[in-house]
Amino acid sequence: MPSFVITDKCDGCQGQDKTACMYICPHDLMALKKVVDKDTNEVKMKGVNQEPVQCWECYSCVKICPTQAIEIRCYADFAPLGGSVFPMPGSDSIMWTIKFRNGEIKRFKFPTRTVNPGEVDIFAGEGEAQADISRVKEQGFFTHQSKERALPVPA
């Protein structure tokens, strides 16, 4: 189910030119829209999902929203019909809260990191590049054969 913004909770990231949900959405679906406040007749900028059908349901916007104004209605295999999910990101984990339609609430926590930020060496164990650039047009240049290793065989 696509994400939707609860306009009563959304503050448009306090009047910035780009909201957190606009920044994080991998499909560029979130946008700012002028909304008239019913009580004060004041025009405010609020985040909206401009194309809900295209939503990937990645939960990026839900996790980053500072006011928890974005929700995604869950599929029945994740939370029963009518339930809603609220993630609360922390520095090392995310606390997920599921509210069922009967009012029952369950929480579970998942770690988001196993190492400290900046400590991962993505090239560890690979050594320096030793490709022979003169072979760039040969078949198999970008595969295991370029390092003269056999392809992995499933067990």
Q: Could you describe the 3D structure shown?
A:
This protein has a three-stranded antiparallel beta sheet. A two-stranded antiparallel sheet has the order 1-4. The longest helix is centred in the first third of the chain and has 5 residues, at 20-24. The radius of gyration is 23 Å and the shape is elongated. By secondary structure, the protein is mainly beta. The protein has helices at 12-15, 20-24, 60-64, and strands at 3-5, 30-36, 43-49, 70-72, 84-89, 93-99, 105-111. The protein is 9% helix and 26% strand. The relative contact order is 0.13. The chain is built from three helices and seven strands; from the N terminus they run βααββαββββ.
CATH T-level fold name of the domain at 3-72: Alpha-Beta Plaits
Q: Count of DSSP helices?
A: 3
Radius of gyration: 23 Å
- Shape from CA axes? elongated
Amino-to-carboxy terminus distance: 39 Å
Low-confidence stretches: none
Please give the oligomerization state of what you see. Answer: single chain
Question: What's the helix-strand series?
Answer: EHHEEHEEEE
Main β-sheet description: 3 strands, antiparallel
Task: Kindly state the percentage of residues in helix.
Answer: under 10%
Mean pLDDT: 80
